Amino acid sequence: MKAVLARHGRRLSVPVGANFSTKRMATAASSMTYPRSVKIVEVGPRDGLQNEKMMVSTENKVKLIDLLSDSGLSAIEATSFVSPKWVPQMADNSDVLKNINRKVGVSYPVLTPNIKASSYRATSWRLWWNADFGECVQGFDSAVAAGAQEVAIFGSASEAFSQKNINCSIEESLERFRPVCEKANDLGIRVRGYVSCVLSCPYQGPVEPSAVAAVALKMHEMGCYEVSLGDTIGVGNPASTLAMLQATKQVVPVDRLAVHFHDTYGQALPNILIALQEGVAVVDSSVAGLGGCPYASGASGNVATEDVLYMLHGLGIHTGVDLQKVMAAGEFITSLLGRSSGSKVALAMAPKYTPKSACRHHYSDGSMGGSSSKSKQFSASNVSANGAGTSSARSQITSKDKAILDLKNARDRLKKYQSRLDIEANQLHDSAKRLLQAGKRDRAKLALKLKKYKEQQMQQADEHLIQVLGMLDTVEWETQQLQVFEGLKAGNSILNAIHKVNNVAWLPFLRRVQTQMELCVDGCLDTVP
């Protein structure tokens, strides 16, 4: 028995000094076997960011991945090689993958579409085109060219979801994956499989465990070294999770399975606990609970990596990951996105790890020790007189600066997109020439049609670029006007304060100055859009 436990996991024991109720609960739990160690697959940089409306710059994506690499994580999903039309957040996939600081022992898998079909709507002519010439921009080949050493493919256990998400049946999607797996195997690149909607589907409702097992088996047989089972909309509970895992374990070895839970109903951690009890030792999670599926309405973020680590460490399970460093990465990305973390652990432990700069900002009203009573009183009077306005202005300027940065990033992405479209159009033109020379007129016509489509996309990109440049000019002008306005407003407030403390003889002069300043302020207000 000891040898069996040494190979497969550990049992909980009753701590010394525990009271009766604690002992009773621990005794009940002692029959549950957990893995000795669990591998965390961090999906935040890809699955976490793909559905974010606010565009994150390439530089910040790279920094997020590097922060996560430093935390001890051994697998970090870096990006996705899919069409920017559907997932614009991932348009800089190659740049991200080429610029991260790769650590020895850390894998950086990327999501790839199949080779045969485009990530645009799968019409028959597009299937034919890609079968002959390959995807021009996205997909497996692009991922390999960017340095990918591990790729991931995705399928669904729900027919309805498969049609809505990738516009084909489950069977057809699995057949499309086969060339990816074969080519990856030839190149020595590992392939990970994702099965979505393993518990329920937003379009058809509950999914049968047998359907999940069938898809997982096919992925395993195609060469996926690991198959991750995802509760895409987070409606699963421990009972449905148990049934699904027990069915899947019958056809796929448990050491080849991983779980991927969303926390829509707060059931992610209980479901992970069930998976651990069933022998699963690989868990997908997302820093700060980022994420959600862009094609699954109502799906909230992935289970937070911080929360999973806290639970696993509490169970005495080894992960090799530094919780504090993951929290720092979570704080970095959520501050960029302008919202609080989706991790309950991060929120609860935040005061313990608040950076000194944040503490200084928190006490910037002069209430920290070391200042005299008089200076505190003066600071308080300033706050009561104009503090609210100054704080608001500071917040607005920060927001506008952020908007300017986002618009500049959007401008740069559009320019890259235009350049890429131009290259594709030229490639299609050359292909049409070769096909005509070979006497393949029909295919040449198709190539020219595709070239025309690319040119239409270039025209749309031109229009978007003009809009972005116009918005950028407007925001920069507003920022300059706001800075002038706030400076005059602050000066006016100071004069009001001087009125209260200076000799009455000064009042006529000060009133004249104040009147002139108010006229100036009114003029500035008229110029602010």
- CATH uppermost class of the largest domain: Alpha Beta
Strand order of the largest sheet: 4-3-13-12-11-8-7-6-5
Fourth-level CATH superfamily of the largest domain: Aldolase class I
The largest sheet is: 9 strands, parallel
Query: How many beta strands in the DSSP annotation?
Result: 13
Q: Runs with pLDDT <50, length 5+?
A: 1-8, 11-30, 116-137, 353-397
What best-fitting shape do the alpha-carbon axes yield? globular
Please compute the radius of gyration using only Cα atoms.
29 Å
User: Number of helix segments?
Assistant: 19
Percent in strands: 5-15%
Q: What is the structural class?
A: alpha/beta
CATH topology of the largest domain: TIM Barrel
Task: Give the number of domains.
Answer: 2
Average of the residue pLDDT scores: 77
Gross CATH architecture of the largest domain: Alpha-Beta Barrel
- The percentage helix is 55-70%
Terminal CA distance reads 77 Å
